[in-house]
Amino acid sequence: MSNEIGKPLSRLDGRPKVTGAARYTADTPIEGLTYAVFATSTIPHGRVTKLDVSKAEVAPGVLKVLTHLNTPKLKPIQHPPAGQSLMPLQDDRILYEGQPVALVVADTWERARHAADLVRVEYARAPFLMDFTEHLDKAVTVKGFFEPDSKTGDFDRAFNSAPVKLKQNYHLADRHHNAMEPHATIAAWRRGKLDMYDTVQGVFVARTVIAQALGRKPADVRVRSKYLGGGYGCKGFVWPHQILAAVAAREVRRPVKLVLTRAQDYTSHGYQAATEQTVTLAAGRDGQLVALRHESVAPGSMSDDYVEYGAIASRTMYACPALETRHRIVRVNRGPGTPMRAPQEGPSMFGLECAMDELAVVLKMDPVELRLKNYAERDPTKGKPFSSKKLRECYSEGAQRFGWERRNPKPGSMREGHDLIGWGMASALMETYRFPATARVTLERGGTVLIESGTQEIGTGVYTIMPQIAADVLGVAPERVRLVLGDTTLPGAGMTAGSSTTMGVGSAVHDAATKLKQKLTEMAGGPIAPDAYADLLKRRRLEKLSAEGLWKPDGEAGTGESKEWTMYTFGAVFVEVRVDESLRVPRLARCVGVYSAGRIINPKTARSQMTGGMIWGLGQALLEHTELELNYGRYVAKDLANYLVPVNADVPDLEAYFVDEVDEHASPIGAKGIGELGAVGVSAAIANAVYHATGVRVRDLPITVEKLL
Amino acid sequence: MNENERQTISVNLKINSVNHALQIEPRVSLLDALREFAGLTGTKKGCNQGACGACTVLVDGTRINSCFALAVQYEGRDITTIEGLAEDGELHALQSAFIEHDGFQCGYCTPGQICSAVGMFKEFQRGLPSAVSETMTGEIEFSDEEIKERMSGNLCRCGAYVGITEAIHEAFDAEVKR
């Protein structure tokens, strides 16, 4: 080991990213490219009764207009791993506004776009449901990724006999991912095989679903994703447009590029479903929780069973003998929700951590002390110990760095000039989902090292982290190591999702590099210095030497659970907000987060991950809200001018720290995942700080100015 | 004259000191001309509505959203894209600072951020005030607050703003003090 792990190495893909040389999907140069543009439904529910494509078909440059009347029939696909099972252009049904009704292919993008506007559609409208909060009586139980309900202990008995009780409703808004890179697919058929460049967080998953829909063998489909311009979940599952691009390319017998418009991005690949949460708490006067019930209702779709688990964190977060969670959905005429940074724990920690703050106020207890009083040594629902957990250190280091002891608990008591100052805190929690992965590490002539793995780069830094891991084992400089990824011809890896890549792919790279080093040692007949690698190959007349690596988590793949352990990452978030006493505009003034998340491979990229996550929390708390238009059944604003994401001027000093930790139960390299953790807890800390500043408890995100007047 | 020729016009664009003769429809945006016709894909399409800044390029040194501009308007102008900032393979100081301060994650908004910052600094040097400037006419301090305000037309969804601000501050600070 040469201590490359833990170094704050600058990104090895920095140069291509700052020079414009990095090729994202839509940048791929392809000979003979054509362009496809969707025309989409203007109604949320009903049927297409009449389609007039005559003007579109004869418009200049148009090669094909696909509608449900002429699109070849596709094989059924399932959610998951498809984002939705409903495939547009297969029949006349409309289940949500924005559903594609035609796909126009032309020789330029401008011509395709214009022709798509010429498609005339008539509909038979049907009654629709849009706002789930008006239809909570229609809530149903479905099985999504997790069990909908959990129950430990006797809630009623514990609740009835407790001296302190609290019950509150919390509402989180619908939000959209809004990756800066719109979804893009380039599909080309060559000798009966499909070659795709795609904005997808999982090339192998995409291959499986696309092959299934087209009735082909996976071997007939190749999917590549070299750089992703963000995804945050919306490029995880496989969505209809990817499949329809392949169909269009087959129909016109030329490569097709399909890039969704920003507006289409709002209706084509999921969103973070709002949650209506109810938290019921009972505690002793000393703050010890005796009963906790967390219920969540979220909008679902008409076609599929994706569930936003808005209560799931309560299954794990606090030691409590009587603990219940419940998840329901109300089906609405909108496309399905999908995971979004940070799903499940993200929304559920808002309700739970706001309720804990309210309990601390009732008990006149310090919010940190209340959390320590209920610190879980074991997972209260699963009954297993945590593979590692240094949350106590997070609370104490975070409080100390923030200066928490100077907090006057009285709301409205701290101010500076016209600013009311509020200090709030919350915990963070995220399950450590573990997925198997494979990788190949090759020593090349000249002594450079090549890593190959079919993972993806979405901004998390894998082009840097993986070379660091291999360099650490082999004793070479990370700059001498390069990673090739995002291609189904490479060794298999899973989705870039669930904060799982460093752990899974990193462990596979570690395994391959270790095996390569063994081979080299055997070949040299003893320990060999890294600067002698190239010579050894030369002497053996070898062009290269490779080793295959594999990591398979013990326990069920895709969970954070093994036979002995349950695995989570943790954190403590402390924030200061400022609210102008007259204008009442809430602003985040600073944020300190301390995290317990296993071994950190690269502190520089890790810090960016965490502060980026905090900015997601800031957006969730103060800005982001996808507004529904209830008369027409659509989203009011499908753009970046009216859907507010945080801009540079919204962002204050953000500090992220990690406690020293190596979790060897989670992965051989001791790492866990951090991609989502930073986005958890921030919105609750901000809401709690807003209460501390103003005395107004806002239980409805985002906290906009009118809620503080 | 075939139909294609009837609908298109020839447009000469000077991009990164190189002349490009393009045969395009008048409705082609500068962004699409760069990406789809001149083969310069460093400039990115984020929203195509002038709201995200990913398509920012420099025209005669001034930053503009290239999605909000028609290519035909820019004949005879000096267009600089992200591909034209490095000189002889030597990165612009700001490009190096973005790498050093981790001013990006996915990198998709980065070409726009960097071009925008170059244009922003020229505005600052000209004495153009921003919404947070203390004075409309006097000397403005090149502060983080000024940078954040002036860079808020460039969205970064990964949330790399901390590194972006640090990088811009460092790259131009020496020039301010000069």
What can you see in these coordinates?
Chain A is α+β, with helices and mostly antiparallel strands and 709 residues long. Chain A has 3 domains: 14-22 and 435-551, 2-Layer Sandwich (Aldehyde Oxidoreductase, domain 4); 32-126 and 180-230 and 235-268, Aldehyde Oxidoreductase, domain 3, CATH 3.90.1170.50; 275-433 and 562-708, 2-Layer Sandwich (Aldehyde Oxidoreductase, domain 4). Chain A contains 15 helices and 26 strands. Chain A has a 7-stranded mixed β-sheet, with helices on both faces. In chain A, helix 5 (203-214) packs across helix 6 and helix 11 (462-474) runs parallel beside helix 12 (501-524). In chain A, 62% of the residues are buried. Chain B is α+β, with helices and mostly antiparallel strands. Chain B is built from 6 helices and 5 strands. Chain B has helices spanning 3-7, 30-37, 93-100, 110-125, 144-150, 161-177; strands spanning 9-15, 18-24, 56-59, 62-65, 78-80. In chain B, helix 3 crosses helix 6 and helix 4 (110-125) packs parallel to helix 6. The radius of gyration of chain B is 17 Å and the shape is elongated. The interface between A and B is large, with 64 and 63 residues.
What's this model, at a glance?
Chain A is of the alpha+beta class. Helix content of chain A is 25%, strand content 25%. Chain A contains 15 helices and 26 strands.
